[in-house]
Design goal:
Helix content of chain A: 55-70%
Order of helices and strands of chain A: HHHHHHHHHHHHHHEHHE
CATH superfamily of chain B: Cytochrome c oxidase, subunit III, four-helix bundle
Number of strands of chain A: 2
Largest sheet of chain B: none
Shape of chain B: elongated
Number of domains of chain B: 1
Oligomer: heterodimer
CATH topology of chain B: Four Helix Bundle (Hemerythrin (Met), subunit A)
CATH architecture of chain B: Up-down Bundle
Structural class of chain B: mainly alpha
Number of helices of chain B: 7
Largest sheet of chain A: 2 strands, antiparallel
Strand content of chain B: under 5%
Radius of gyration of chain A: 23 Å
CATH class of chain A: Mainly Alpha
Strand content of chain A: under 5%
Shape of chain A: globular
Helix content of chain B: 55-70%
Number of strands of chain B: 0
Structural class of chain A: mainly alpha
Radius of gyration of chain B: 27 Å
Number of domains of chain A: 1
CATH topology of chain A: Cytochrome C Oxidase, Chain A
Distance between the termini of chain A: 39 Å
CATH class of chain B: Mainly Alpha
Distance between the termini of chain B: 80 Å
CATH architecture of chain A: Up-down Bundle
């Protein structure tokens, strides 16, 4: 590295582990969530291998239970939730708003250490025998019956929750207080709006799951009876508290991805976003409405039918802001000068797969239909379309889009397109058959199934192996680009935005002098279709 | 990307590239005050104070949600076991509870005085005095809590295998005491953390760190302290006073 940048400002392990630079902390997160992604992927591999055949022949049922539980715990809490916010958000939000750092750099570093500590608990839980409750830790199974390391894993989730809370807190304060002069709310990149909405969920939802798993631990260790019916407690209260966080948590995963997509479609269509304020406010709407739908997880849990009706209705409502985004992205791409570079391929993948995931969500928010589909592979397919087809596509798209900015290196576009194609094909082959298997009645969380469902499961397992190759490729060519990649100019995509005005990789201080912003991001050449905002 | 072109060249059409920032404005460098406590990434002391204060308010929002889960559980179980809760509540000591309420309210006053003394650049000694007074009241609160918990252990009112209840509704009473210990326990942990924060702030104040231009830690620590007090203001009636009509308490 010749020019001074955040990457060569200090060398050695200590300069990284004690850094307060948001860009370096983002890279610490990048490395650690990649480790957890691989770990969660390995657990998924065992699940798919077991389900190749109808008989439970590879894993004992207890081992299988642990595999899908650890897959869920690791992927949800240690990969998906921190993925885009803690890596891309951490790196980009201060730069996008013209700040030198997040408002609380030390708290930012602390959040990473808390994350690692929570991860260690989960690691130890996994190594010492795992957890078999499902990632949902439902009581009374998790408090009374489960004979595994529930407390360790629950503490891991509890601890890592605080890392999420601190990240959200840092983002909110930063976006409120650190914007450069002239960076008004409606000049903010939509990526920042999406993270603002995400942060609201992080600070409002995460404390509730924290107290909930704490109560589970208290019940297991101290034998308090908050959720134990034998002691007068109510296990359904656990489900309410759990989903009060865990449903909005889905929006913690998807909203940042939506922010990424909003940036990518503008750059690679060469057009300003269609309906900026609608996209910005739909993020807030999703965050707010998302807090009022948790009861759709309890349609068959003994919730009153009237509560069910209301939750069902509000769940339908959340489709509106989601659809607004999809329509606006489509309108942005319409008549644009579309370039099919790898980030845009991921963006196209996201839009299509998120639409399928969202529409199948409507099936499940219909109370009658949900009774048929509840706890089947239809549900599994639905939320993987959102979390994998949506969130991970957005994460990979964003990682490819900003990789030249983060590392100062260009990767092989050829391999990147191949990887994007493999991910798309592999993903659909893995999860589309699960809709059918689920509709035909295959329940989730069993290691055996009737032989007539084998064809769908074989397809699914085959798709999973393609997906594994698709996910492994970026690991190779992105790492390769660090050593042999061409140097990236400040703005390799011909994009707009503050982050593209500073060198790649950025200097430690981001901006020598706090910039004065005179107009919004992504001001592409005016044309007849799109006026300048 | 090995062909030596940047990717921007894929695109047809004009590529106007107005920078987001005004070049002239960039050069126009407003020199700002350089207080030794101004961190590098803030432009001014005001921005730094506003960021820290907002940060604490946001943190308190998360605290409300954290305690909120317990209040939700309380609401549900009190609704399900109204009489049992009254019966169980009658066994809490209203006297100790009331004393602790007064102690905490007074500690909030001394805390407010500590913030005020820093804001008005009072002598370090004065600032430290108010902070130490706050800590003394905080410690007194915890002392009373220790006595109360001791009584509960002695009376076998701690939930779990050793819980003994001779009244009409043992299950509901045990839930009440589970909530009692969870809620007051969590509150006490917050008090202990608050004492730690106050210790650090008092040491800083002793060294003369705070004056009218820089008093962020006192202000932010004060917000936290008041919040913990307010939680108690809710806990006291919900736990101690609902059994008032059930029979004479201890």
């Amino acid at each position: 590295m010749d020019t001074p940048s955040y990457l060569n400002d200090g060398h050695g392990l200590k300069s990284w582990l004690l850094t307060k630079d948001h860009k370096r902390i983002a890279l610490l997160y990048l490395v650690s969530i990649t480790v957890f992604f691989v770990m969660g992927g390995l657990f998924a591999m065992f699940v798919r291998l077991e389900l190749l055949t109808p008989a439970g022949d590879l894993l004992a049922s207890e081992t299988y239970n642990k595999m899908f539980t650890m897959h869920g715990v690791v992927m949800v809490f240690f990969f998906l939730i921190p993925s885009i916010p803690a890596v891309l958000g951490n790196f980009l939000i201060p730069i996008m708003i013209g700040a030198k750092d997040l408002a609380f750099p030390r708290i930012n570093l602390l959040s990473w250490y808390i994350y690692v500590l929570g991860g260690l608990f989960t690691f130890v839980a996994a190594l010492s025998g795992g957890v078999d409750t499902g990632w949902t830790f439902y009581t009374p199974y998790s408090t009374a019956a489960a004979n595994s390391h529930v407390v360790l894993a629950a503490l891991g989730v509890f601890i890592t929750g605080f890392s999420s809370i601190l990240t959200g807190l840092n983002f909110i304060v930063t976006i409120h207080r650190m914007r450069a002069p002239g960076m008004t709310w409606f000049r903010l990149p939509l990526f920042v709006w999406a993270h603002y909405a995400t942060s609201l969920i992080m600070i409002l939802g995460t404390p509730v799951i924290a107290i909930t798993v704490l109560l589970v631990a208290a019940e297991r260790v101290l034998h308090m009876g908050i959720f134990d019916p034998a002691l007068g407690g109510d296990p359904v209260l656990f489900q309410h508290l759990f989903w009060f966080y865990s449903h909005p948590a889905v929006y913690i995963m998807i909203l940042p991805a939506m922010g990424v997509i909003s940036e990518i479609v503008q750059t690679f269509s060469r057009k300003n976003i269609f309906g900026y304020s609608f996209i910005a406010f739909s993020s807030l709407a999703i965050a707010i409405i998302g807090f009022l739908v948790w009861g759709h997880h309890l349609f068959v849990a003994g919730q009153s039918v009237y509560a069910g009706l209301i939750f069902s209705f509000i769940s339908f409502l959340v489709a509106i802001p989601s659809a607004i985004k999809v329509f606006n992205w489509t309108a942005t791409i319409y008549k644009g000068s579309v370039a099919l570079d790898s980030p845009m391929l991921y963006a196209f993948g996201f839009i299509g797969l998120f639409t399928i995931g969202g529409l199948t969500g409507l099936f499940l928010s219909a109370m009658g239909l949900d009774i048929h589909m509840h706890d089947t592979y239809f549900v599994v397919a639905h939320f993987h379309y959102i979390m994998v087809g949506g969130a991970i596509m957005g994460y990979l798209g964003g990682l490819h889009y900003w990789w030249p900015k983060i590392t100062g290196r260009l990767y092989s576009e050829f391999w990147a397109r191949i990887a994007a194609g493999l991910v798309f094909v592999g993903f659909n082959l893995t999860f589309f058959p699960q809709f059918i298997a689920g509709y035909l009645g295959m329940p989730r969380r069993y290691h055996e199934y009737p032989p007539e469902l084998q064809v769908w499961n074989v397809m699914s397992s085959a798709g999973a192996s393609i997906l594994a190759v698709g996910y492994s490729l970026p690991l190779v060519y992105l790492v390769y680009s660090l050593f042999a990649g061409e140097r990236s100019p400040a703005d390799p995509w011909g994009s707009r935005g503050l982050e593209w005005e500073i060198p790649s990789p950025p200097p430690t201080a981001n901006f020598e002098v706090t910039p004065i912003v005179t107009h919004g991001t992504h001001q592409y050449a005016p044309s007849k279709e799109v006026g300048v905002v | 990307m090995s062909n030596g072109h940047t990717r921007a060249e894929h695109f047809p059409g004009p590529l106007h590239h107005p920078p987001l920032t005004s070049g002239e404005a960039r050069k126009h460098h407003v020199p700002h005050e350089h207080h030794p406590k101004l961190q590098h990434h803030f432009d001014s002391m005001d921005q730094q104070l506003e960021a820290s204060t907002l940060g604490m308010w946001v943190f308190l929002v998360t605290e409300i949600m954290f305690f909120g889960g317990l209040f939700m559980a309380y609401l549900l179980y009190r609704w399900a076991n109204p009489t049992a809760f009254q019966e169980a509540s009658a066994h809490l000591s209203k006297g100790w509870g009331a004393i602790n309420t007064v102690v905490l309210i007074v500690s909030s006053l001394t805390m407010a005085m500590a913030v005020r003394s820093a804001q008005t650049s009072a002598k370090p000694k004065t600032q430290v005095m108010w902070l130490v007074l706050t800590m003394v009241f905080g410690a007194a609160f915890l002392g009373v809590k220790y006595v109360e918990y001791g009584q509960k252990f002695h009376d076998n009112l701690v939930p779990g295998p050793h819980f003994v209840w001779t009244g009409q509704y043992p299950a509901g009473a045990e839930i009440f005491y589970s909530l009692y210990f969870c809620m007051t326990g969590l509150h006490a942990i917050h008090m202990i953390i608050g004492l730690g924060i106050m210790t650090v702030i008092a040491i800083m104040a002793w060294r003369g760190s705070f004056d009218a231009r820089y008093y962020t830690p006192v202000e932010v620590g004060g917000l936290y302290w008041h919040f913990v007090d307010i939680v108690w203001i809710f806990l006291f009636p919900l736990l101690y006073l609902i059994g008032a009509h059930y029979g004479a308490g201890h």
